[in-house]
Amino acid sequence: MSQRIDLHTHSHYSDGALSPDELAAGAAARDVALLALTDHDTVAGCDAARSACAARAIHFVPGVELSSEWRGREIHVIGLAVDPAQGGLRLHCDQMQERRRRRIERIAAKLDTAGLPGTDLTRSALAATSPTRSHIAHALCAAGIAANPEAAFEHWLARGRPGHVAAEWESMAHVVGRIVAAGGIPVLAHPHRYKVSNGQLRELTGEFKRAGGVGIEVSLAGMGPGDRDRVASLARRFELAGSFGSDYHHPGIPWRPLGRFDKLPDGVTPVTLHLGTAFCPTYAAVTGQS
Ligand code: AMP
Ligand code: MN
Ligand code: MN
Ligand code: MN
């Protein structure tokens, strides 16, 4: 049986549904041999995930997904193989969690103004180490106010909607620097999801590379072949390694299980080569799919 890899996952330290131990159990059940935990703006789950993976003979890669800003847009940068104890990274995460908390409190006030129970709807977000709008989206669903998380964003949380509060992130170049300083490999997350023109995506990717970027997510669960080819050509053009994973948040999405991604297109170097033997003892595991 092929051994799977997943380099983009979330736990309940940010907006994932599972604890690190449950995540590792899920990974073991799916024959995932190499797992990175990449929570939003926190490395707090990495110690628990490391032990949980060790107990199941899964190779663990400590990671993080940092929110950042580029030309007024929100861009996510994954840090793979970061040192979760590094002071600068911890400080950055602490600061971002504080900003996230304040943002959620402002969203609560705006939802109140819109006639919704803001305090109730933001309770689960504020209970998390790294509070996110995704928590609020799920609360809106649980309260029967939105049919699904996408609709919750569309009607309540997105720009121009009653509960929208703009985020204040550090620049993309800044967060790339934070990851490098923590010994990590910066990977541009889900480039196909940014609502920018092809020209802007090229400029974004070029700036990411010049800032010290090493990888780009070429193959994510749920990505269509057109998007994968578009991102693969960016990877080749800017000599970025291809990363892959599921962006796993919870077990309720059957088409996005742990360890699912399509094979990297030809001519794209797998980012696992940059992880080195300490994290990734066998590259044979990079087979692609299902
Ligand atoms: P935040 O970082 O607090 O802005 O929350 C962003 C998180 O919400 C993302 O990491 C996604 O998990 C989720 N999210 C963002 N946009 C959407 C959307 N349109 N539909 C569903 N989930 C979304
Ligand atoms: Mn998320
Ligand atoms: Mn993301
Ligand atoms: Mn993610």
What does this protein structure show overall?
The chain is an alpha/beta fold and 290 residues long. The protein contains ten helices and seven strands. 40% of the residues lie in helices and 15% in strands. Strands 1-2-3-4-5-6-7 form a seven-stranded mixed β-sheet. Strand 2 (32-37), helix 2 (46-54) and strand 3 (59-70) form a beta-alpha-beta unit. Helix 1 packs parallel to helix 2 and helix 5 crosses helix 6. Bound molecules: adenosine monophosphate and manganese (II) ion (MN) (3 copies). One manganese (II) ion binds at residues 8, 10, 65, 247. Residues 10, 15, 40, 132, 134, 249 line the site of one manganese (II) ion (MN).
Q: What portion of residues is helical?
A: 25-40%
Radius of gyration: 18 Å
Q: Main beta sheet: strand number and arrangement? A: 7 strands, mixed
Q: Would you tell me the overall average pLDDT? A: 94
Order of helices and strands: EHEHEEHHHHHEHEHEH
Unreliable runs, pLDDT <50, ≥5 residues? Answer: none
